[in-house]
Amino acid sequence: MLARLARPGAPRGCPRAAAAPCRRLGGAVPAVPAAVPAVPAAPRPFEQVPGEWRAGWLNLLRFWREGGLSHLHLIMARNFRRFGPIYREKLGVYESVNILSPGDAAALFRAEGTLPERFRVPPWVAYRDLRHRPYGVLLKTGEAWRSERLLLNKEALAPELVPGFVPLLSAVGQDFVRRARAQARQSGRGCWTGDFSQELFRFALESVCHVLYGQRLGLLQDFVQPELQRFIEAVSRMFHTTAPLLHLPPALLRRSHGRTWREHVRAWDAIFGQADKCIQSVYRDLRLRRRSPQEPLGILGNLIVRDKMALDDIRASVTEMMAGGVDTTSITLQWAMLELARAPGVQEQLRAEVLAAKREAGGDRERMVRNTPLLRAAIKETLRLHPVAVTLQRFTTHEVILQDYRIPPGTLVQVGLFAMGRDPAVFPRAEQFRPQRWLGAGPKPFQGLAFGFGPRQCLGRRIAELEMQLFLMHILENFKIETMRAVEVGTKFELILVPDRPIELTLRPLEGP
Ligand code: 2DC
């Protein structure tokens, strides 16, 4: 553990040894220096946490000039190298303490209280205030958050939901395979090659809408409704325009007439407009009893029928899930396929596991999901190297000791997920894609935090995990995943972390059905 990294008594900013070079970052991974012998002493005061936290606006300027808008993850990794495993920072008006060790993450989550709060992305709050739209659970706080979150957990996150979700998500995965086989046939080369990001955006939207609305949208057909394509573009644009606005206070944003803010507002308008259309159509069907009893109601239908939440609140949270379900899973799947293409041995092992599970379960997808631990581990491993969220954040509710510093209540503490995932002190041979590392003996506390932790963890987690497991299962059963070896793909920050260039993949059919 990284107990005592900063030399006891060192006031601030003791420089760190250079990091071991990393395949993808060119050495931008935090190095963990050899432990300094522990000196029992009282925890040090907050003021001594290393870092640059005095001139917020100056820091923000410098951050922007250093390309922080698209390199937040690299700047954080560099700060950890410079300051050690904890540092304090102020960007604009936002102050935070940043940590990277699993042990510190554990201590932080012990101090999150019963109404945990993360950093509320200011432009997202400002948009809802501007349009007088209610917050969904993502942005709600306090008791209102808690009661809604509990109701939503029952419909979106509870383990009992798995049997209902599996057939819906598996059907979409199967359609993707069908489409990929057709594309391979038509190509004349017997395989399907290209940048799959658009195809996967559609796959992800089709998947999340199937569980949310119980309806198919037809996004995996040749003709895609232009308004759905526009929804997909709006989500990417919304993320993209959030990054440069991230450190500006909401009050300033709302009054601003800047181009980025206007684009941001337009993107959210398009997102809410399209989500409302889907929601209205389900609502109408329900009222007119146009749904046959065999048809799944979907999460939205269930929430309406249960009648425990105001319709506007349901709409707000369902819209968040619909928007949150596009880029997050599709980009993770791109990374997963890239890693598997680069590690053919691992790919073969996974395929063997999936095929064995299929023989054993007779095609019962739910059992297959349960019996493919290496496949789950491969998703965890993908998210370790390529987390969607660069950090996890919590406001502390009572004093907590992190790296021997006293952190007062009400402090925003961020766990540097990207940095942690690539830290060789936490993950031996961190640069290697090795799903097996998750299956070894012994617990791995607070190492797999891609979906967050506790009552405020990702609400879409169950859907995302099943969607990705079933997708990869179908792909592995049907195709060999290949890539051009030499191309290095880096990461850029667009609010979520995304590949910095298109990922070229090839799906080669294993044997024709
Ligand atoms: C971005 O410094 C960097 O799951 C900031 O599906 C801190 C921060 C706060 C909240 C994080 C955000 C970061 C990244 C995107 C996250 C978001 C919380 C939820 C959101 C991680 C790390 C995401 C992608 C949701 C988005 C739902 C939305 C479309 C309604």
Outline of this structure?
It is built from 18 helices and 12 strands. The chain is of the alpha+beta class and 513 residues long. It has one domain (16-509): Cytochrome P450 (Cytochrome p450, Orthogonal Bundle), CATH 1.10.630.10.
Number of strands: 12
> How many angstroms separate the termini?
51 Å
Please tell me the total number of domains. Answer: 1
What is the averaged pLDDT score? 91
Percent in strands: 5-15%
Topology pattern, helix = H, strand = E: EHHEEHHHHEHHHHHHHHHHEEEEHHEEEE
Largest sheet: 5 strands, mixed
Radius of gyration from the alpha-carbon trace, in angstroms:
23 Å
Bound ions, cofactors and other small molecules, one mention each: (3alpha,8alpha,22R)-cholest-5-ene-3,20,22-triol
Give the CATH level 1 class. Answer: Mainly Alpha
Strand order, main sheet: write it out: 1-2-3-8-5
Give the helix tally. Answer: 18
Helix content: 40-55%
Q: Class by helix and strand content?
A: alpha+beta
What is the name of the CATH topology?
Cytochrome p450
Which terms summarize this structure?
513 residues; Cytochrome p450; 50% helix; 10% strand; globular; disordered N terminus; binds (3alpha,8alpha,22R)-cholest-5-ene-3,20,22-triol
